[in-house]
Specification:
Chain B: It is found in: Secreted. The complex is a heterodimer of chains A (391) and B (186). By secondary structure, chain A is mainly beta. Chain A has five helices and 26 strands. In chain A, strand 14 and strand 15 form a beta hairpin. In chain A, helix 3 packs across helix 5. Chain B has 186 residues and is mainly α. Chain B has a single domain, classed as Growth Hormone, Chain: A (Up-down Bundle), CATH 1.20.1250.10. Classes of the chains: A mainly beta (391), B mainly alpha (186). At the A-B interface, helix 1, strand 8, strand 9 and strand 14 of A face helix 1 and helix 6 of B.
Chain lengths: 391, 186
């Protein structure tokens, strides 16, 4: 019941429609950044208000009355100078208010710049089946007002121009994908036209052969396996990407690998066109992540360096671990537990007293020597060692 | 013969009641969706539209005069089932057209997509209501509203109020459908 009392309060008790109270001129103007504008608020009905009591806001911020001018009892103007680019694409909100703050009229200002030549036009063909192009806006000003981009393309020596429909906006710019009837063996000419209410611009024409910009899927079936009991080597196998298995080209491959908990990758170039590779110089008993990618260099006679695919999903394997001696010489186990360390140090001091006469200060060298000694006596039962130290 | 007649209506009402329940759920879902879209849309309109206490004058356009969700309590209470449904149907058919127009004129592509997606939900709600009216034997005349031309600022203000009105309607419809459910039970 209470909720409907609330609905009663929502019922409009005022109000005038906007157009009946006051009018701002100009309506929805489109202006260049840095330009000036004189706007007028004209009271159209008898509200008992004088133009001198009104005020202006732009995007909710009150504008200084030093820029106002009362032309007559019902006309107030404002001078706006050095306009900045619009805060939102729907236009800046310029409003004329009564002294009590109520909105009397409004106008949307679109402040921007005519577009500059779109730049960084690059294209990729996925498996020679489509053509995806990216570009960036040529200037910063055109992003403040609605600017439309059209990617156009045609085959060289042909007349017909085509447009790429529905481009998408990404972080770094714009992209559009041409998926129908991609022609091979004849170059494409591609460009971007940018248009907005203040002007238009066309990018340089990019001429490309689809085969020079082919990128494939990553290699498939990447597998990493041990080589017998070799501790420092792993074997990597993969197959060429399935989509192009019927196409004769010599892909070149690249491998990268890293330790499980280290972010840096090591790369193996010059893998050639074989589909397996032996990794050497690895740490024993360690997990490695491996990825492979490929480049369809020379596809159908292309002379360009080619474009690398994405890295394959990581495959993982571990090298066989070494024997006890090797384990002992690795970094000491991160015990982090004071009780273990203290017990060990206690034993160590006992040993120092016994084996290093006149030694009041402990040195790292002695500690090292003791560690070596400890390894050598690893085969002896632990008790015996303790008895020696506690004497 | 009279026995058959007694069985049939109650069966129909059972399916109507479940249809009312799912329509109720739909209004709750759309109410939730609208809250999210409204914030994004008001940010798109720019300040002060997205400021907390901002309230521009309410325009006189069709979408915002008939029918309004706001109604006097005793009138709302006393609404007959057919009138109650008819008011809902008329409201959503007008508001759907208005939101579609909002979507069409939105310059931000992702917001446009969200609004159009929301419209399919609204369309579904309208369809549910029309289907309910048909199965209860009520007629449902629909008429299209003409759209006046207006400047961009006035369109922003209208958009602001359409979303508000839609919010009120979704809120009210939930109560409408609850009331319908009770009335059809007795």
């Amino acid at each position: 019941m209470i909720s409907f009392m609330f609905l009663l309060l929502l019922a409009p008790d005022v109000l005038f429609s906007l157009t009946h109270v006051a009018v701002i001129s100009p309506q929805d103007p489109i202006l260049r950044i840095g330009s000036s504008l004189t706007a007028t608020c004209t009271l159209t009905t008898e509200l008992g208000l004088h133009a001198g009591s009104l005020y202006w806001t732009l995007n909710g911020v009150r504008l200084s009355s030093s820029t106002y001018r009362t032309v007559s009892a019902n006309i107030l103007t404002i001078e706006l100078h050095s306009l900045n680019g619009s805060q939102q694409k729907s236009g800046d909100n310029l409003m004329c208010h009564g002294p009590d703050g109520r909105v009397l009229a409004g106008s949307c200002l679109y402040v921007g710049m005519p577009p500059e030549k779109p730049v960084n036009l690059t294209c990729r063909s996925h498996n020679a089946k489509d053509l995806s192009c990216r570009w960036s806006a040529g200037g910063p000003g055109e992003t403040h007002i609605p600017t439309k981009y059209t990617l156009k393309y045609k085959l060289r020596w042909h007349e017909r121009e085509n447009e790429c429909v529905s481009y998408s906006v990404e972080k770094q710019g714009y992209s559009c994908r041409i998926s129908a009837n991609i022609a091979l063996f004849t170059p494409y000419e591609i460009w971007v036209e940018a248009t907005n209410q203040l002007g238009s611009a066309t990018s340089d024409i990019s001429s490309l052969d689809v085969l020079d910009v082919v990128t494939t899927d990553p290699p498939a079936n990447v597998q990493v396996s041990r080589i017998g009991s070799l501790e420092d080597q792993l074997m990597v196998h993969w197959t060429s990407p399935p989509e192009l298995k019927d196409v004769l080209f010599q892909a070149k491959y690249q491998i990268r690998y890293r330790l499980e908990d280290i972010a840096d990758w090591k790369a193996v170039d010059n893998v050639g066109n074989l589909t397996s590779c032996r990794l050497a110089g690895l740490k024993p008993g360690t997990v490695y992540f491996v990825q492979v990618r490929c480049n369809p260099v020379g596809i159908f006679g292309s002379r360009k360096p080619g474009i690398w695919s994405d890295w394959s999903h990581p495959a993982a394997a571990s090298t066989p671990s070494g024997d006890l001696l090797h384990r002992g010489s690795c970094d000491p186990k991160a015990s982090g537990q004071n009780s273990t360390l203290r017990r060990e140090l206690k034993q160590f001091f006992g040993w120092v007293r016994k084996h290093a006469s006149g030694c009041s200060s402990v040195s790292i060298k002695l500690y090292d020597q003791w560690r070596v000694w400890l390894q050598k006596s690893h085969h002896q039962p632990r008790n015996q060692v303790q008895q020696d130290n506690n004497s | 013969a009279s026995l058959a007649a007694a069985v049939d209506p109650s069966n129909n009402l059972a399916s109507e009641r479940s249809s009312i329940e799912s329509t109720y759920e739909l209004t709750k879902y759309l109410e939730y969706q609208l809250k999210e879209i409204k914030d994004v849309y008001l940010t798109y309109l720019g300040p002060p539209f997205n400021e907390k206490d901002f309230s521009p004058p309410r325009p006189n356009s069709t979408a915002l005069t008939l029918p309004s969700a706001a109604t006097r309590l005793e009138l709302w209470h006393g609404l007959e089932n057919q009138a109650r449904l008819a008011q809902n149907q008329r409201a959503y058919s007008i508001l759907l057209a208005a939101v579609r127009e909002l979507a069409r004129s939105t310059l931000c592509p992702s917001l446009k997509t969200s609004l159009l997606h929301f419209c399919t939900g609204l369309d579904g709600l309208l369809g549910s209501i029309s289907a309910l009216m048909n199965s209860l034997g009520y007629s449902s005349p629909l008429q299209a509203a003409a759209r006046p031309t207006m400047n961009d600022f006035a369109r922003k203000v209208e958009g602001f109020w359409i979303l508000r009105e839609l919010q009120s309607w979704l809120w009210r419809s939930a109560k409408d459908f609850n009331r319908l459910k009770k009335r059809l039970r007795g």
